[in-house]
Structure formats: C-alpha cells, structure tokens
DNA sequence: GAATTTGTGTTAGATTTCCTGACATCTCAT
DNA sequence: ATGAGATGTCAGGAAATCTAACACAAATTC
C-alpha cells in the first residue's frame, strides 16, 4: 500500500468529527456500520475511530440513499466496487511482476 | 488556498489521536499550545481539534527539542519559517497577477 | 552554590463526548 | 392493514477531555 493510501486508511477520527464532515447523525453512522457499509476501528476505550476513507464511504452512502437506493442495494454496489478494485489491484501486481521478470531477463535492473 | 491545503488545515483530530500520532503527552501538547507553537481550534464543547498541519508542527517541535533547542528557540524558528512562507506566497501571488495581466493584454485569456 | 526558570509528571473534579440498548415514529411496499 | 426499513430519541454508564494546581529534576542565572 502506498504512503498516501496508508494515510487515507489511518483510523483517526472520532464520530463527532465524522458527524460534522458528513452531516449525518450518530444514529445513521452507527446503523450503516451495523449493516457493514463502513468498518471503523475501535480505540483503547472502545470508541469508534474512522479513517478518511470511511468518511468518503459515508458520503457515498448518503448520495446513494438520497438517490433512492436501499441499504441492501448499497451493500451490493460496494461489493461490486470491491471486486473491481481487487481485480485492478491484482492486474497491477501481475503487470509489475511481469515487467520485473522481463527486466531481470534483460539483466539491467536487479529484482532485489 | 488549494484544496490540498484546505484538507491539511481542517481541524478534525481530538487530542487523543494526536497523542498517538506524535507520541507526546497531553501535557506536552497543551504546553506547546500555551507557548503559541500550535493553534488547535475548539469544538462546540470547548475541546481541542487539531489539523494534520498541527500534527506536523508537533513532530517538528519534538525534533527541535530533542536536538537541544528551547521553546523560545522554536518560537523564533517558526516565526522565521512563517515569514519565508509568507514571502513565497506573496511572490507566487505577484507572479500570478503579472502573468494574468500579460494574458489580459494579449487578449486571449480573460481575467475572469 | 543558592535561587530561578524550564519542561514535564501527576492528581482532582468538572464537563463533554461516546457507548449500547430499547422503544417510538414514519414511510414504503406488500 | 401489516411489515420491513431507516431514523429519532432517551436513559444510564463509561471514556475522553478540560482547567488548575502542586511537585520536581535539570539547566540557567545571579
């Protein structure tokens, strides 16, 4: 994972901040969590910690709901996006590996 | 200010998160604030809210202190950095303005 | 070398935020 | 009408944060 992705996925925000950033209520945020749409971590005392990625997801949820989609619809939408991201990830990995092995054959860049 | 800068300066982190990110104690963080080295905002109930920029500043403070500098030294260092950033900002503004007025003369790009 | 300053630890009590669980309400679709 | 889905609201408790004060070691100043 890139540095940028790491930062994006750092669980650093309490629910109060997320509430302000998304204009959702605590109730809504917790409900979406219960329905597996977001997955905040928990701090030492058991309080939720959200990442910036979570905030993005919550904003998407908001949009989808306002567009008439149900929680279940959104679960499927996210599952689909998840699969695509995974494929993309895999194909990038594959590309990288094949490029590296090509370079290794040419012998100009070591694959360390 | 750019979108990126805006995000960087958004006051979103409670002191607990900042404590974990910097490995400083609350006491230290508050002391540095009292000495004008960081300037967290306050939430509705009066609790501190730090930005990612604040976190960076705190990490710098930590480095400087470990390097033997005093709080006052750091105040001056920051003041100097502040002035330089300001100058850079101004010169960028000046450049932008002069470019815009050049374009305006040529008449191809309106200065909105 | 005694006195002061500096940076930090620690504690206490009050306030704010967050937690879970339950019950209520409203809107659709059946 | 009935039931499911999404949200509001409330209660009681736990966790996080706040300020102010006292303590203290190390460095600095007189």
TrEMBL record, chains A, B:
Pfam families: MerR_1
Lineage of source species: Bacteria, Bacillati, Bacillota, Bacilli, Lactobacillales
UniProt keyword annotation of DNA-binding present: yes
Ranges for domain HTH merR-type: 12-80
Record-given protein name: HTH merR-type domain-containing protein
Keywords carried by this UniProt record: DNA-binding, Repressor, Transcription, Transcription regulation
SMART domains given in the database record: HTH_MERR (SM00422)
GO MF: DNA binding; DNA-binding transcription factor activity
PROSITE patterns in alphabetical order: HTH_MERR_2 (PS50937)
């Amino acid at each position: 994972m890139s540095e940028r992705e790491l930062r994006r996925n750092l669980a650093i925000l309490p629910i109060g901040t997320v509430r302000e950033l998304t204009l959702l209520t605590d109730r809504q945020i917790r409900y979406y969590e219960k329905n597996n749409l977001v997955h905040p971590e928990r701090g030492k005392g058991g309080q939720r910690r959200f990442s910036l990625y979570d905030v993005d997801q919550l904003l998407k949820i908001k949009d989808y709901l306002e567009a008439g989609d149900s929680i279940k619809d959104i679960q499927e939408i996210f599952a689909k996006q998840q699969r695509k991201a995974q494929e993309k990830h895999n194909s990038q990995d594959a590309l990288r590996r094949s490029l590296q092995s090509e370079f290794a054959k040419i012998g100009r860049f070591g694959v360390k």
